[in-house]
């Protein structure tokens, strides 16, 4: 499929809203699936470091 111009490509034959919103939703879900585990790992490591410090004082 070829497009006459950049704006035709973005419009995707009047289906651009659906096409680009699907790409945006995919990108958002992909980012969430990468970021949330990283944040959970950081939180877990911080909690473990606090626990070790607390136990070493006792």
Structural class call reads: mainly alpha
- Number of beta strands: 0
Give the overall shape.
Answer: rod-shaped
Order of helices and strands: HH
List the helices and strands and how they pair.
Blueprint lengths: L5 H6 L4 H42 L1
Describe the structure.
The protein is an all-alpha fold and about 60 residues long. The protein is built from two helices and no strands. It has helices at about 5-10, 15-55. The longest helix has about 40 residues, at about 15-55. The radius of gyration is 23 Å and the shape is rod-shaped.
Labels describing this entry:
58 residues; mainly alpha; 2 helices
Q: Could you give a quick summary of the protein structure above?
A:
The protein is mainly alpha-helical and 58 residues long.
């Amino acid at each position: 499929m070829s497009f006459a111009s950049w704006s035709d490509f973005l419009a995707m034959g009047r289906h651009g809203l659906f096409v680009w919103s699907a790409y945006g939703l995919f990108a958002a879900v992909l980012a969430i699936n990468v970021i949330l585990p990283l944040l959970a790992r950081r939180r877990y490591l911080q909690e473990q470091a606090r626990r070790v410090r607390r136990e070493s004082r006792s």
